[in-house]
Structure prediction request, 1133 residues.
Amino acid sequence: MIALAAIGAVTLGTLGLGAWGVRFVRTTSDLLVASRAVTAWWNAAAISGEYLSAASFLGIAGLELQLGASALWQSLGFTAGYLALLLFVAAPLRRFGSYTIPDFVEARLNRSWIRPLASAIVILISGFYLVPQLKAAGLALQVVTAAPYWVGVAAVAAIVTINVAIGGMRGITYVQAVQFWIKVFAISVPACVLLIHFGGLPGRAALFGDQLPRAPHTLVVRLPAATRAQFPQTATIEIGGRDLTVAGGTVRTLPARVPIVIGRGTVVPVAEGTTPQTGATWSRAVGGTSESSPVLVYSLLIATFLGTMGLPHILVRFYTNPDGHAARHTTVRVLSLLGLFYTFPAVYGALGRVLTPQLYLTGQADSVVLELPRAAWPGTVGTLLGALTAAGAFAAFLSTSSGLLVSLAGTISHDVWPRLRRERQAGMSVRRLRFRVAAIVAMVAPALLALVARSIDIAILVGWAFAIAASTFCPMFLLGIWWTGLSARGAAAGMVAGATIATASIFTGLTLGGGQATIIGALLAQPALVSVPIAFVVMVGVSLRDRESVRGSDAMLALHAPEGLGLRLAEDDLDVPAEVAPRRM
Amino acid sequence: MSAEREPPPRTPPRRSRRQELWPPPLRAGRGERASRAELRAGRQERATRTELRALRLRSPRQELADSTAHGEVYLRRLRRAQLQLSLLALVAFGAVFGVMPVALYLLPQLHGAHLLGVPVAVWILIVPMPPVFIAIGWLYARRADALDAAFRELVEK
Amino acid sequence: MEVILGVLVGWATAASAIAALRLIRPPRVISSEQRAMQEALHAATATLPHLRQGLSAESAARTVGHLRTLTQALAVALVDRERVLAFAGDGFEHHADAEWLELAGRATRDDRLQVESRIACSHPGCPIASAVLAPLVVRGERVGTLLALFAGAWRLTPEETRTVGDVASLVSAELALAELEAQSERLARAELQALRAQISPHFVYNALAAIAGYIHSSPEEARELLTEFAEFTRYAFRGRSPYVTLADELNYVEKYLRLERARFGDRLEVRLQVAPEVLNAVLPMLSLQPLVENAVRHGVERRGRGRVEIIGRDIDADVELQVYDDGVGMDNDRAAEILSGRGSGVGLTNVQARLQAAFGPAYGLEIDSTPGRGTTVTMTLPKFRAGVRAA
Prediction:
């Protein structure tokens, strides 16, 4: 109940703040336009706020619980992505002034036919990214209120859609910045309180030693659906009042909705598909299991490192920086803010392994951040802390999915719709109406997919969005910004190749089922290691062979020339007025 | 450029406004006939001006603004310098970050050694990289701004 | 295996360390020779803009320092036919200007460089021993002398004299150019007239009248307002790019409003409410100000008091700017007339035309007005349009 109230407060708070945030009313006497510009810290917090999604708030801890310490590569990759953005993209992109990725593609490559392609990829990435946000929402509401999964998905989809369609909090820098601090607060306070409460990490044998996770006290579990479970060691559990002893290494189907009692100290059975691990393998950063093979780790790092710059809702925020210099310094601040945030999810994964091992059985590892506080400290404190993490999680998917839906609806209403209607221009009111309709339409498909994708980990879903971004927009940005020779056809070919390979291998991997043991299996699960180089090679190759004369020098000027060069307002351009002293002829 | 030639009739399209303003030769405006001496002076003046206009240097800034080949030379230098800097920063963190997974994979000893009850490998995974990112990012931003400033100075001198 | 790994890790660490070091300490790229040449060249070009003003005490004072760097002389003076215009060099206070003038007077011919060695100075420690006098000639007529002073008569090298000569020709050429430029002044004035048309004469008259009203009561205020007015006109007259950022345009509007408040005082109430996200949007220069001026003129001027609101909203990829006044308003026919360009309101018609020329027919102005109830003019712009740049 408290948790629900906290979620409600966060939701209403952000909506309210959005409405209030616009009203910065002043009279001319104390008004200075310069002072209204968003400062680097505010903007950095806003960028981080929009970036920290359900994958960061819930997904990393869940993946850590399930796979082990190797999941932490993901948080490193999420942070490093901003370093790549800083080094290669931030300042030039800001100087260029483009507001969306299709804008950039069209203006840089100087061809209008490439715009629909870029729009299509934007839709693909946003869609992929939106699904895990909604999945997280369904899960969160399920944990907090015991409502069915679909209720949460539908509720958040509706809230976000209405919010975006009405034009509430979207786009407002200060709201997103506040959201960021809510998230930091919500993830750091419970983590610190729990660590202090336990005086460090409890149960180290299961974390780093040779132990399997055991029930910390008598656990009563009700499975949402019949589950095939693997028993890593011989164990006795009570199902519906009858004792059942299962030999180690066997697989049994456990019934749904029947109380399953796991006695204190019993090794917890694990849902099929998850590998039972001792503490020593669990804490291996690389190579503990097949899910953390070096190939997979590298592929994931490439995807996150290079994918960040291609996320459609990130570029929009950089528009708020006044110039390239500010864009750089904002990004450095983003790095430190993200570094701060990503310190904490690891704590939940580790504590969850010791204190909520039943999640291995229910298969809902993603809810560890939500369930841990109550399980770790039964009573009021745990409930309060649980309410805090639930509120933070809601802040996470509200802000990210709003940002994504805005990009999605913007692309559909601005690029796709006019093309379908074959018309050139539409007035402001028509455009606004279209945007609303597009927002509603755009939410339908991800919401349906979220219902289907229930069993896939949030962090893995997000990893795919990053993989597609890294194999399409990343090469396009890097080459487009730093190489004059990139041709429109080359860029198009590379993006198509990257998107096709990435998407095809993800779906092949899905249909074949989770065989990540081989290198091929790993690359099907996370294709960036292959698809990114291919996209680069195709882009360069086609551009080199291209007959169309490519001279991007105009674009290069806009991308790289520093501001304040007098290409903008310089004093000596004012050579018309009075300094020309009257002189005799 | 020959001294006798008339000033070109049309200025190239993307010249600055100031240059389009270069006047056609002015005549004495006192409402009288121009004397022969004045005419001669005018002609001489025109010749000198043509000569001088050839002398008159266009600043790199103008070259940049008009995206001429000359401006491109400056810009390419800046672009290269910025790219080199970016790659330098990439190496500075990427080399260590890049071998980290392999090293952790091939050195199981790191898992055996414990610090405060947590394996060293886990510490390596969590602690050092984010500060490194921030430090490299900060250094990079500082140097990149310096490059921009140097370019600005070069162009405006 | 371990060896390979060790090499790999060691190599990577070394690469990182070297790269990090280079990031911290930038390498010197320019050799001292290059730098000296650059400095010389810079000193030479730095004189250009000042000499372009003609030979005066002021321009001379600004250039002599650079000329001294160029000639590497102990001291350098610029002298015209009557007086020493400027002098650069320290520790020669014991020489009076007259001495330099006398020295310059020794030059006999217009077209020759002259060297005066064996200058005997009785002052102890004065190093000056020789002087090089180079004529400054404009169109065959001598207008002055470049005077360069050196130590030791025997140490004067041909390179030094030649440099002085070259520097003098540089100065001469610039002075010739200055003369020509003076003649283009009248044309520039004509352009000023043309540009002035961009600012409403109505406003200029009123603003100046208001400032005049302050001159007696509070001169300080009047001075500040005049500065504002100067900056205001400077913005309007600045050439080059027809596009500016919204932040710049708003700054300008602010100056404008300050001037209007000088007239109306508290009877003009202004509210500004702009989302910071849209400050970087680019729009044609002077496209918001006419809207505000219109609001002041129709909303406030006739009744003597009133309210003007400027609202900027961030709407996805578009920016919406609204200027509202609670004044007399107008009927729909008149609004349609203005937007279609048939009306008499030149300002708005012009803004509409420029907006649509830049951003296409989907963007531009909308007027929403009820007679007696006030007027809202809404301007919509895209946040990005290729080629439209505040440069």
